[in-house]
Design goal:
Order of helices and strands: HHHHHHHHHHH
Radius of gyration: 19 Å
Number of strands: 0
Largest sheet: none
Number of domains: 1
Structural class: mainly alpha
Helix content: 55-70%
Mean pLDDT: 88
Number of helices: 11
Amino acid sequence: MNRVALSVCTSVLQLALVGVGSLVLLGLMAKVKARAEGRVGSPVVQPLRDIRKLLTKERLHARHSSVVLALAPMVITASAAVAVGISPIIGTHPVLGQSADIFVIVYLLLTGSVASALAGLDPATAFGGMGASRAMTIGALAEPALLVAVIALSVQAGTSNLPGIVSSTASHPAWVFGPVHLFALGALLIVVLAETGRIPVDNPATHLELTMVHEAMVLEYAGPELALVTLGEAMRLGLLFSLVANLFLPWGVATGDSLGALAIACAALVAKTTTLALVVALIEVRSAKLRLFRLPELLAGGFVLSVLAVVMGLVIR
């Protein structure tokens, strides 16, 4: 298979895996939490059923909303899809893989965050404004930590291109157990919890008006638009889980030009992201949601870890 066809196949497989797999991961985490709490819980495929049901429902808009409310779901899903398509999720040669720079991925994620916040503000409701304000506060603290943590890996790899970082780490296995990767991993785990709205930063299973963040911004959505928002946020979670898995455990990622390597990479990705989802679910079971005014301490800790990773990378380079 030639390189262009392989790149297209890689990106299509990534979109399919993350699009469907991220919803299954949400169902798996909910199931694990339910079983750990002594409940049966809903089926693992329940998020897929919810998406199918929402697609058959009617669109509803707030009376005083503008075009922003209608466009935001498409922006959220499209930005996540583009980031998934160009990132090294199952292979190091996706379409436009040379453009998968750290800053490109971070700004694509930021585009989705801004669209969510604007959608929450657009209907001019108290809950939407509250959720948007909280989300931007959390994002302002989490995005720099994400950027600096991946920069630490780029210092060691000598490139800011994500496929290049994955390839370099795969060819230098000792880096995985070095201080740079360990500090950066700690920072990214905190960022992932914040960016995906998981405990202790946010509780995705609650609608309490004094605690909700993400849910407050999507209260005005219904039907297909709510399905798009749900899919976009799930793809965001799947992308972050995949990047954490591949940046720190790059084994299994396809670097060759064969379909067999892609098949192995798909199996490896499923195994790594499932393990990470189980870890996150167990953390949620044993943790409580932090008060809003305590979140800066947690996220500042993630930023400090990412800065330490950069310093260690410059020292031992």
